[in-house]
Design goal:
Elements: E1 36-37, H1 40-51, E2 58-59, E3 62-65, H2 71-84, E4 90-95, E5 98-103, E6 109-114, H3 129-140, E7 151-157, E8 163-170, H4 176-194, H5 213-231
Parallel strand pairs: 6-7
Antiparallel strand pairs: 1-5, 2-8, 3-8, 4-5, 7-8
């Protein structure tokens, strides 16, 4: 999906257009996470991708900016948002023949491409076929589940200075519910960094709120095991 065009060359907030949030985003603390099994929906995606290797399941929210975007600030904003959410650093590997997941210290990847054709002046207008082809190449390029990272940022610029930012995620770590939250957080980081006198200024570290993905996944797996244990007395052996 491509968001609406907003003025001033700032990254639009597609989750809450027109809503201002002045609170500063908070980086996540460093910690070690023991690998855990994939959740059922993740396992289904893993099986699908490994059995049908020609098919990939990316998720690609995009933002279209009518003005230039500072690449230094953008990269810092993406790193800030990614560092706050360990799920974005997830890698998947086999452990005793079963796929498991854990966050790894992977560096976000950025790609920049200059377009020969102008981007449309509005997100309501279909882009040039060459631009669509360039987008498709980035979206369909596979991820390495074992080494990560499982998302990348692609920045397209046209001859008129307009910018199209495409965030490509593996569907195992990202879904439609995540898109608005991620773009909102990128917007907050970008606005905060752009307002500082120097992009090298250290970011504040207020307390982080919310539920950690790996804590949630481990709790959900424990609940499933408890439910199976409770159901076993009622199951018969065939």
């Amino acid at each position: 999906m491509v968001s609406q065009v907003l003025p001033d060359g700032q990254i639009p907030d597609v989750s809450q257009a027109g809503v201002t949030d002045s609170s500063e985003p908070s980086p996540a603390p460093n910690r070690t996470v023991t690998p855990i099994p994939l959740l059922p929906d993740q396992h289904l995606i893993w099986m699908f991708e490994n059995c049908i290797r020609a098919h990939r399941l990316p998720y690609s929210p995009g933002v279209y900016c009518p003005g230039a975007v500072d690449p230094v600030i953008l990269e810092q904003a993406v790193r800030g948002a990614a560092g706050r959410h360990p799920a974005l650093a997830t890698v998947v590997h086999l452990k005793t023949d079963h796929p498991c997941q854990a966050p790894e210290q992977t560096e976000p990847k950025f790609f920049y491409q200059a377009l020969s054709q102008p981007l449309p002046e509005s997100s309501e207008t279909d882009p040039d076929p060459d631009i669509v082809s360039a987008l498709q190449k980035q979206i369909t390029r596979p991820f390495d589940l074992e080494t990560g990272p499982l998302f990348r940022t692609v920045v397209f610029t046209d001859p008129d200075g307009r910018t199209l930012i495409c965030f490509v995620f593996h569907h195992m770590i990202f879904d439609g519910w995540s898109a608005g939250l991620f773009i909102q957080e990128i917007n907050r980081w970008y606005a905060l960094l752009a307002s500082r006198p120097s992009t090298r200024t250290a970011m504040p570290e207020p307390a982080r709120t919310g539920i950690d993905f790996f804590e949630y996944a481990a709790r959900r797996l424990r609940t499933q095991e408890q439910q199976w244990d409770a159901a076993r007395p009622f199951l018969t052996t065939i």
